[in-house]
Structures are given as structure tokens and as C-alpha cells.
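Problem 12. The chain below contains 252 residues. Write out its predicted structure in C-alpha cell notation.
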Amino acid sequence: MPQRIFDAHLHIIDPAFPLVENDGYLPAAFTTSEYTSRIEGLGIAGGAVVSGSFQAFDQDYLVHALDALGPTYVGVTQLPETVSDATIENLNAAGVRAVRFNVRRGGSASLASLDRHARRVYDVAGWHTELYIDARSLDEIAEQLQTLPAVSIDHLGLHADGLPHLLRLVERGAKVKATGLGRVDLDPAEAIVAILDADPSALMFGTDLPSTRARRPFSPEDLELIARVVDPEMLPGVLWDNAAALYLRHPR
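Solution.
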């Protein structure tokens, strides 16, 4: 790739910090040094470290990872709805920029607290809300999501049957991650083009490394697919600008 890339979705799994078994699953280690080795030569110059279900509400691993990766990396964390404003502010100072609702796997606050929780982190620290959710379920909460200050959906919404629901949210300002192409049940090229047609500023690339529980892990061929199907004029937005506008608004 001839330009810098923001990796909008990656996981760091450091066994020095607590891991929580999820449906009998514990991931293999994937440290910051392993991540930087895997992305060597790809042009990735920043990214978002996303808390997984197996990390629940632990923040120590995330702060440690952000310290190691540097100021162009930010965090997406899971927080209980009882979290204090002081904790949100401290995490913001450490580089966290979003709260995640893991509807697919658990480990996060529940959807019952979505509205209050999403508005609170936005009011306290300007964070947006991210959802790991099958897009077929989006229609049930679409009205609620449309009223939130800022929302992002992981992994192209996962399923082709949910794409119409996803596109309606994109038309109303939602962002979408072109990530986890080895875990989705849809044609990534078709979904990418449809999202860009709805809103060119909506789409953000990410590796999803280390691709835990995906049918296939991230490959540089995923980047090649994006370069092939995205209009050259839109490519800088998908690879850097759209994510940078969302995640890097407040310098660390």
C-alpha cells in the first residue's frame, strides 16, 4: 500500500493479565511485539486496540498495550454501567476512545444499558459506542442507535441478510469496520461498495488480528481486496482518514 493505514480493529492478548474463559474458549497469546511483527511492511501507522469478551472489564492489559504501541494507537474498552466518571476520565487520559458492547460474545455491559451508557461516556469523555452484533438484529434497536451521538458496527455487520439494516444506519451517520473478512457470512466486496455508496466517510479498515475464532485469519490479501474494490479517491478515507477522524480527534 502506498499510504499509511489505521488499523481500526485489533486485539492484544497478553497472558500477563487476566483472561476470562468464554464458552469454553481461551485465546492464545498475541502480545504487542507479536502484533508489530505481523503488520511489518503493511504501512500500518496507528490503530484501535479492542477489548474482547475474554478480557471482560479488565483495563490493565489495555493501558499497558497502549503504552507499548504509542500515541497513534487508542483503546476500545468494555465497562460496567456502574463505572465512575473518574475511571472514564482516567482511561481517556490513557488513550481509550470508545466503549464496546459485545452482543455476539458477551463480556460487556448489556444492551439494556446501551442508551444510558453510550450517552454517559460521550458526555464525560467524547467517546463513541461500538457494537459487535449480527446486523440481522439491528432492526430491533435501530431507532435507539439512530439517536446516539456516535456509533460504529464491527465486521461489516457479519451477515448478508442484515446488510439492509446496516445501510439504513449508515445513512444516518453510523460507521462500519471493514474487518474480520474471514469471519463474515457475506460478500465483503459487495458490502464495502454498498456502504461507500451510502456514505463514503463511514467505512474503516482493520485487520482484526489475531482473528480469534475466525474461520480464517487476516491476510494481506484482505487489503488487496479493499484496494481493488474501493474507488481510488475514497481509498485514503477507508485506510486512514475516516478512522483518524473518529479515533484521533483528541491527542493523547
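Discussion. The radius of gyration is 17 Å. Students who got a different answer should revisit the alignment rule from Section 12.3.
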